[in-house]
Amino acid sequence: MSGYGQDMSTAGSWFHPVQADPDAPIRLFLLPHAGSGAIIYRDWPQLLPPEISAQAVTLPGRHNRREEATFEDFEPLLDSLYEAVLDELDDDRPFAIFGHCLGAQLGFRVAVRLKEEGERQPLVLGMSGWSPVGFFKPTEEQSRMPDDEMLEWIKKLGSFPAEVYDNPDMLALVVPALRADLRVSAQYEDDGATVSCPLASYGGDSDPLQQDPDAMTHWAGRSPQYLGHRGFTGGHFYIDTHALAVTTDFSRHLRNHAAQTAH
After folding, report:
1. How far apart, in whole angstroms, are the C-alpha atoms of residue 29 and residue 10?
2. Which of 120, 122, 192, 232 has the fewest other C-beta atoms within 10 Å?
3. pLDDT reading at 4 higher than 60
4. pLDDT at position 40, please?
5. In which band, very low, low, confident or very high, does the pLDDT at 9 lie, cut at 50, 70 and 90?
6. For the segment 204-255, what is each residue's pLDDT rounded down to a tens digit?
7. Contacting residues for 135 by C-beta, under 8 A, at least 6 apart
8. Residue 75 half-sphere exposure toward CB, CA atoms < 13 A
């Protein structure tokens, strides 16, 4: 399978690649962190086994969708993403969702909505770099911090490649999308919602956004089939350096549960 670079020219599409591999028995939706898009999962197609066809999500206002207005409110964004996922599902092919940070927040609520609406459930839900309890929650004021403060903050998190910070054109794309996503995340209120599908969690052991050392343990109460937590060395963006380990572990869960549901 190829990476996502060649697909970024398709304007208006939520998913990259636009079409899932029709021969893959499992499809996987990948949701990125705040301010980013499908590009953060560029290495995953080569790391996943061929039976899993991954499609990464790009929200409006970035990459190929940069001409579109960004969402700045949580519920309208969730509504649009939910409809996009629902419209994309095959009649009978199993699917899974994996999200990092804001992507985990959105992915979790998509799964909650699917349960509430009586729709098919994800094979497995993968939650990375966020928990409904014990994680940093941005404020509306923080989303409006001056550019220099915003850049210092995201540099400390290591959320973008170093070359981005010295490229005014790239910053002009990244910063507005990040501001919008922070405003979206600031509106999230935990209501104790649960999902009915299996759930696995992942995180960096020294993530500065994890304010409670036991934050990831809260996932155990959000699914009747909690598959446990895998911690890795590194901070919030541990996922960049541990992509192989994360994809290997998550693929194992997908294979196991696909085999169970086939019987």
Report:
1. 17
2. 192
3. no
4. 85
5. very low
6. 999 999 999 999 999 999 999 999 999 999 999 999 999 999 999 999 999 9
7. 209, 210, 211, 212, 215
8. 1
Query: 246 in helix, strand or coil?
Result: helix
- From the list 146, 134, 260, the residue with the least C-alpha distance to 208 is 134
Whole-angstrom distance, CA of residue 253 vs CA of residue 125: 10
Burial 165-189 (b: 16+ CB within 10 A, else e): eeeeeebebbbebbbbbbbbbbebe
Model pTM score: 0.92
Angle at 188 between CA 246 and CA 131, to 5 degrees: 30
For residues 170-175, give the mean pLDDT: 78
Query: Residues with Cβ < 8 Å from 159, sequence gap 6 or more?
Result: 33, 34, 35, 36, 236, 237
Whose structure tokens read 């380990």? Answer: 245
Cis bond before residue 17 (omega within 30° of 0):
yes
Residues in the chain: 263
CA distance 63 to 173: 8
248: its two tokens: 């290997």
The closest alpha carbon to 125, from 202, 196, 218, 198, belongs to: 198
Domains, the chain, in order of start with CATH, read 15-262 (3.40.50.1820)
CA distances from 33 to 100, 247, 249 (A): 5, 17, 20
Handedness of CA 36, 217, 230, 162 (dihedral sign): positive
CA dihedral of 255, 257, 259, 263, whole degrees rounded to 10: -170
CA atoms of 155 and 79, how far apart (whole Å): 31
Tokens of 181: 């996503």
Specify the pairing of strand 125-128 against strand 226-232. unpaired
